[in-house]
């Protein structure tokens, strides 16, 4: 039987503040609670950079605009801290990524493989960012994948719908927090 891990990605305070949805964090919290109760590891991924942003190239259109705005240096707790409503429990790993995918510039792959994880359950902000990029890379790394459609959030509801209804099902099972939690 595959060993699952719930990935909670880019749910940092500064990111959540940019995506107002009063129902999102309680729903995500339900998935986290269900995972913990079922013994499914919960792994967090946050985006962060060293002081001075040496990882950010002037050629990187997305990240060069974030320098000093949203993605502050890793030492700035406000930027890299997971929102307190869904914060990691003691001992739950938090990996720092340097790009959109949770695998890019982090030790996530090593951590998962060392733990015997071969099935990832994806959640996070944004559906068109970290979830899409991580799904694509995880599929190429031969992980089994599940996406919790209501455990993801995007600023564009139509983009979210197209991804969760048309794109993600080609590489992942797509379900809801409630359905996934009930199946554990």
Automatic annotation (TrEMBL):
Coiled coil: none
Keywords noted in UniProt: Hydrolase
Gene Ontology MF, one: hydrolase activity
InterPro entries: Isochorismatase-like_dom, Isochorismatase-like_hydrls, Isochorismatase-like_sf
TM spans (from-to): none
Domain of life of the source: Bacteria
SUPFAM superfamilies according to UniProt: Isochorismatase-like hydrolases
Boundaries of every Isochorismatase-like domain copy: 5-178
Alphabetical list of PANTHER family matching this protein: ISOCHORISMATASE HYDROLASE, PEROXYUREIDOACRYLATE/UREIDOACRYLATE AMIDOHYDROLASE-RELATED
Designated name of the protein: Isochorismatase-like domain-containing protein
The organism of origin for this protein: Streptomyces fuscichromogenes
